[in-house]
Specification:
With 318 residues, the protein is of the alpha/beta class. 38% of the residues lie in helices and 21% in strands. It contains 9 helices and 15 strands. The strands form 5 sheets. Strands 3-2-1-4-14 form a 5-stranded mixed sheet, sandwiched between helices. Helix 2 links the parallel strand 2 and strand 3. Helix 7 runs antiparallel to helix 8, helix 7 runs parallel beside helix 9 and helix 8 packs antiparallel against helix 9.
């Protein structure tokens, strides 16, 4: 039973989004069922899965999860927003975004809550260890965005023993692979921006929070294991990512980059690279890449946002 009483520990809605990911979502839920934090609820949002994984998860974990079954794939943003709306409706204190391709340490949520409460209800990110290579960390965090690289300032390869990443610290931008957020923050800054679908949505969300004056903390005492890049649920993740990352970066820079010269140079370089990809794939007769490069260029020019267009999955699949 979840309690929102002021005399209890804060209530947390743990939101995981599933899309054709039965194996990963099951492992994630199993690990969450063994955490030591007593006042949480697992909210499993199925993003219109085509493999019946959503209904199978509902059957397997009946009474242990709160299922939300969406009829269409709303992307990471749409799925997380469905979980946020459930948390708001049911008066939770926090929402925890958690990728379904993660497994958690039993005390991870206790550590996140303690860190948040010690800093006046801050947003908190745990130490994220690569599941398949536990010698390194999987982190996309920093004080702000480096607008020349489109990554967090100081972003680099982080070995597990890195002194920098074993120290609690304030940050200003992070991924939502695992992110604890007070619902009071969301009431102020709003839901995730569904114009992204996925990719750069997390940078958008965390920048909005930090620019609104909310504290964000990296807490290495809390540990999550990430099976990197297992959430897209597509047979062609490289082209799926290619389209969304290159399209969304123009929208992201338009919203947040206040350095006009840097913005113009970076986006011009990206657009030129896409043009070269299109011409190169045309010459090499790589029809699928040619088609996706064309769609990406077209939709950047048109300002298309939101879900991937149906054409991406239609013509010229080879």
């Amino acid at each position: 039973m979840i309690s929102t009483s002021k005399n209890s520990q804060p209530s947390v809605a743990v939101v995981i989004v599933n899309f054709n990911g039965l194996e990963y979502s099951s492992a994630c839920i199993d690990s969450l069922l063994h955490i030591d934090y007593p006042n949480s609820r697992i909210v499993m949002v199925d993003n219109g899965s085509s493999d019946s994984s959503g209904s199978m998860l509902v059957q397997s974990y009946e009474g242990k999860i709160e299922p939300i079954l969406l009829s269409v794939n709303g992307g990471v943003t749409g799925g997380n927003n469905a979980g946020i709306e459930y948390a708001l409706k049911n008066n939770f204190d926090y929402v925890l975004f958690l990728n379904n391709d993660t497994e958690v340490h039993p005390s991870f949520l206790t550590g996140l809550i303690d860190a948040s409460l010690s800093d006046g209800q801050a947003l908190v990110v745990p130490k994220i260890v690569c599941y398949f290579d536990q010698r390194r960390l999987d982190h996309w965090i920093g004080s702000d965005i480096d607008w020349w690289t489109s990554r967090p300032i100081g972003y680099h390869y982080y070995p597990l023993e890195s002194e920098e990443m074993n120290r609690k610290q304030r940050i200003g931008v992070a991924s939502t692979c695992c992110l604890l957020v007070p619902l009071s923050v969301i009431r102020q800054i709003g839901l995730m921006d569904e114009d992204y679908f996925m990719y750069y949505d997390d940078a958008d969300f965390t920048l909005r929070a930090s620019r609104a004056g909310y504290s964000m903390i990296y807490e290495p005492a809390s540990v999550v294991f990430h099976k990197c890049n297992k959430t897209t649920g597509t047979k062609q993740p490289s082209l799926f990512e290619y389209y969304l990352v290159n399209r969304n970066i123009f929208y992201f820079y338009g919203k947040f980059c206040n350095r006009p010269i840097v913005k113009s140079i970076v986006l011009a370089k990206i657009f030129t690279r896409l043009l070269l990809h299109f011409v190169g794939s045309l010459l090499l007769r790589k029809k699928r890449l040619q088609y996706v490069a064309y769609l990406t260029l077209r939709d950047i020019v048109r300002g298309v946002r939101g879900p991937i267009p149906p054409e991406f999955f239609g013509e010229n699949k080879k």
